[in-house]
Amino acid sequence: MHVVIIHPEQWNGGSDRCTVALIRHFVSKGYKVTWLTTMIDEYWKDHKFEGVDIREVGLKLHPGDWWSQNVALGWYLVFNNIKPDLVVVDHSARWYSNLIGLIEEQLFEKTDVIMVNSHFTASQFSRVMPHIEKSKIRVVYPPCDVDSIVISAEKPMSRRDRPQNDVYIFMSMNRFWPEKRLDIIVEAASLLKKRGYKFLVQLAGSVMPHIPESRIYYELLQKMTRDLYVTDVVHFIPSPSECQKFELYRQCDSALYTPPNEHFGIVPIEALDQRRPVIVCDSGGPAETVIEDVTGSKILKPTGELLAEAMMHHIKKQDWPALDCDETYEKQRARFDRDFSLRGFCAHIDEAVAQLFPDLAAISSRNRRALA
């Protein structure tokens, strides 16, 4: 079977890891895989994509304009005599105008399966595309352990099993982008410092060189720390490697994830995997994936005051039994493996493929019986 994956702008976020997971899984099944993209970030330069026909189509379009890029890659697919059996299109969460929305709705009516990354996204999709059959929509949470399997062979370590920090360490792992609301972390740090708390905030994440807004926001946050006199308690870690990322998780006591209405949000799941409590906004995907006072805390809206209160709660809370204790963590680990792991993700993909290609599923079943 020939699978074509269309994914513009391969950065190093959650959707990009989904793409990598799909590619590797389809290759492992013995399928022919063609990957159409407009750019591949330097982050992936050392990753091996054996058995994949990569078509990096350079387009002079504004970064983030996935509508135009998907259209361009679709035309490339049609006019380059590529004959796929299955096409996987990674679609942007944005709908730019009523006209484009009407066109997109016509396109979605022709699809067989629509996979979304949270129940929140499913509800948003149905609201914007009310005429699409709900039976086509499947919620499949993205896997967060794509890189940890490759990069980090170390088993996640609970806070009990590592030396205690001199001060409480909060770590934010997010790209520097205005919608991520990292500014409220700086505001919260100012409030905590004024109230005499001993803590450290590590602001880690990618500064996207191709997008001026990312660099401008990064510089704005640095200025904000100077203006609020928190440069001593807020440290910036731009564009950490995957090895550095896992080391930061091991060092920290709690993770921070501040964007509101995020469709999924990979950081809360990485925190669960690494056995760290996390503070999130009570909206979007994180509202589904974080269990209040079990795996983390939720704030009603993104404000520095509410975040500061949640951070104080974490500093005062001695234990998170569901994460710190090996015996009780088993339940959360089972939840992770079922809903958020690469293995669980691939199982959902196989179910969808079997539905679309029942003859292929029957052949695979016979082959498994023959090998047994």
Automatic annotation (TrEMBL):
<keyword id="KW-0328">Glycosyltransferase</keyword>
<comment type="similarity">
    <text>Belongs to the glycosyltransferase group 1 family.</text>
</comment>
<feature type="domain" description="Glycosyl transferase family 1">
    <location>
        <begin position="164"/>
        <end position="318"/>
    </location>
</feature>
<dbReference type="GO" id="GO:0004378">
    <property type="term" value="F:GDP-Man:Man(1)GlcNAc(2)-PP-Dol alpha-1,3-mannosyltransferase activity"/>
</dbReference>
<comment type="pathway">
    <text>Protein modification; protein glycosylation.</text>
</comment>
<dbReference type="GO" id="GO:0005789">
    <property type="term" value="C:endoplasmic reticulum membrane"/>
</dbReference>
<dbReference type="InterPro" id="IPR027054">
    <property type="entry name" value="ALG2"/>
</dbReference>
<dbReference type="GO" id="GO:0102704">
    <property type="term" value="F:GDP-Man:Man(2)GlcNAc(2)-PP-Dol alpha-1,6-mannosyltransferase activity"/>
</dbReference>
<comment type="function">
    <text>Mannosylates Man(2)GlcNAc(2)-dolichol diphosphate and Man(1)GlcNAc(2)-dolichol diphosphate to form Man(3)GlcNAc(2)-dolichol diphosphate.</text>
</comment>
<protein>
    <recommendedName>
        <fullName>Alpha-1,3/1,6-mannosyltransferase ALG2</fullName>
        <ecNumber>2.4.1.132</ecNumber>
        <ecNumber>2.4.1.257</ecNumber>
    </recommendedName>
</protein>
<dbReference type="Pfam" id="PF00534">
    <property type="entry name" value="Glycos_transf_1"/>
</dbReference>
<keyword id="KW-0808">Transferase</keyword>
<dbReference type="InterPro" id="IPR001296">
    <property type="entry name" value="Glyco_trans_1"/>
</dbReference>
